[in-house]
Description:
Blueprint: E1 2-8, E2 14-20, H1 24-33, E3 37-43, H2 49-57, H3 62-77, H4 82-92, H5 96-110, H6 115-120, H7 128-140, H8 143-200, H9 206-241, H10 243-255, H11 257-280, H12 285-295, H13 299-313, H14 318-323, H15 331-343, H16 346-402
Antiparallel strand pairs: 1-2, 1-3
Helix pairs in contact: 3-4, 3-8, 4-5, 7-8, 7-11, 7-12, 8-9, 8-16, 9-10, 10-11, 11-12, 11-16, 12-13, 15-16
Amino acid sequence: MKYKYQARTKQGEMQVGFVEAPNKDSAVNILSGHELYILTIQAAEKEGVVDRLSGYFGRVKRRDMVIFTRQLATLLEARLPLNTALKTLYEQTRQSALKEAAYRIAEDIDAGLSFSQSMERQSGIFSEFFINMVRASEVTGNLNEIMGFMADYIEKEADLVTKSRSAMIYPGIVIGLFVIVAIIMVTVVFPQLKPVFEQSAVELPILTRILIGSGGFFTKWWPLLLLGVTVIFIAAADYFRSEEGRALWDDFKVRAPIIKRVYTPVMVARFSNAGAILLRGGVPLAQAMEIVSHTVDNVLYQELFREIAEEIRQGTPLSDAINRHPTYFPPLVSQMLVVGESTGQLEKIFDRLATFYGREADNAVANVVDLIQPLLMIGVGLMVGLLFAAVLLPLYKLTSSFG
């Protein structure tokens, strides 16, 4: 049987791969024999539908993560040892998954693992960004600052999601009602009117004929249509979970006009925050960019930051390396970095970029939401007008023929 694993070498390098073994214990023994420290290991078979559903409903909400991170930051600021702080959180946390994670992380730290390695074993709860920021703090020694930053970041992210969802509730209700009305009209109303139109020999508009035909097709074949939609949805979800699908989706987020307005400022703000924290901790710039590549969740940006780190090692200024990628970074970023490099205040420039693009992301979300609402309402209004026109025009012709 094949098992997928994540492990670290004695030198701390990450290894991801597959191992063949008759069972999980044998796979662990094989990897341990190669002097690898196992972070995660699981059967290579795909998750079942039940596993995915249970994982979805059992996931940690952003608000719970904000509270957990804020409490950990407060305890660390009070100069409690990390292990003591985690055990305190275990006693105070009500969310079951976070409570269990705090207990297991504390146990792993007692066993001699680092904080980031312990969190990596709970990767189903903590994001890759969170884990890598903690790893960066272990390099710089400013775990308290990182925890405070992560609490602020997750809270801000939660607020953005909440605002976006709240703004979309009303259009969502309107669209849902329209879909229900359209289904009733197509499957119930039009089939009853069809004999009347046929007997009167009135020529039906093409829109009415399309809706009558689609209503009959939907009524007859709806089980197959439902099955087809379900299969397509599952296949698309599996594809976008693959490396190729994820790269395609990440590229779409970078290039799609409306999504890009929100996504690019978020990525620049995240990169700037991480860069400022790392430089403040004394990490060399090239190494900082290498670490930043692990803090972003976009495979294109990850590869980009690795390339930038290599260019810096070869003597290229950061501003020049950034300026070569206008698709991923607005021109202001490289211009500000030039100022930081010439004045020797790159860390402060990163802070200013993080503040500026954090506000840009907030404004972009508000603007996009304000734009989407009227567009959705106009679209729904047009669809409703076409739907009722398909009914009223034949009725008008029918009454005119009697006159």
